[in-house]
Request: fold
Amino acid sequence: MAQRTFGRVGVWILFAGILALAAVPAGAKTVVRLMLWGDGKAYEPIIEAFEQKYPDIEVEVELTSFGNYFDRVQIQAAAGVAADVIRVNGAFLGGLAAAGIIEEMQPWIDAAGIDLDEYMPTGDIFWYKGKLYGLGNQYDLVGLLYNKDAFSARGLTEPADDWTWAELRDAAARLTVRSDEHVEQYGMTMYANATYWGQASWVNFLAQNGVRILDESKSRAAFNTPAGIEAIEFMRSFVVEDRSAPPVEQVYAWEFGQAKVAMDFTIMPNSFQNLRESASFEWNIAPLPVGKERAAVTNTVGFALNATSQVKEAAWTLIEFLVTEGQMIAGRDRLFMPTYRPAVFEYIDPNEAPTRVLDVLNVSSPYAVDLQFTPSWSQWSSVLGTRISEAVSGTRSVESALEEAERQVNAILADES
Reply:
């Protein structure tokens, strides 16, 4: 079979090209358009297998950059030429569902007999106003990277599955190596730079202390509570009191892969391949420590169905393949970490670092929390991240930072309605 070519569309749609972009039959085949961000290379073997199984369907893949993606989907939808299958994440999905661009998926799922319990927990990422609008296919989860050599050198036992906040703080202090005021190695990375949305830091700590950012309706801030203050004060203790984490403004200059920090909250599996190739020390990953409860953030991405597609049956056939058989291909070829549980076992190699991936998934995924996306998420998460940055860095009190953040977040949320 000839190798598939994935073309990159570099210009916006011209009026003369609108009809050409619409889904039309190609000979005896039905054309299904699939919209992705990035280079799409991970999907080449999956699409090839799909077309072998369904020779009457041809998949046209359209690519654009992540930064342009959401705007492009909206522009195409307004012109009536949006792709039939649209890649989505939580930041996009609510806006697309609210605008009627994507279709509720539950009827399709029920008709296909798909068991959602066969998929890793993803919180409310693919839900909007009580309805399911997407299915995840590429999983991630925050875990704790640790330098095994650093633990051994300090005579410390590696992080256990039931590690606590107190043990994390103690280990970070003991793993910090300094001579007078010169730091050779910090014990822990604490991501709290201004505007950061908290996926690998404060969303986890708040949830582990029983606090969600927003209330259940996602219409009001819920973080400015005694437990919320306690969680941010815990983060602050690493930076200000213990000095076991880098100053907030220097956090990206202290890299785990260069043995400059001994522990790091990481979005698993994003960093694994680079560490396998470049780390000069032994390393592994553990479940996040337990606060008052267990929690770890996931920001899984997946696919949605264009509500106005003219080839919905074929488009759904593609989605169903992407989240089932395509997942097995992704796991077998290690293209990305699947959400489909049977494919996860294909993905994990217990003999390759890190060796505790399955352990992390088994322990933490039942307690996965999402980022509580709303249409204005990028705005209010940036504001909240900036106030938390001020608190963790010690430039203002935690109480005043969260009080101001609460006012700002509520004002942004009020504008959504």
Remarks:
- The first strand starts at residue 30 and ends at 37.
- The radius of gyration is 23 Å.
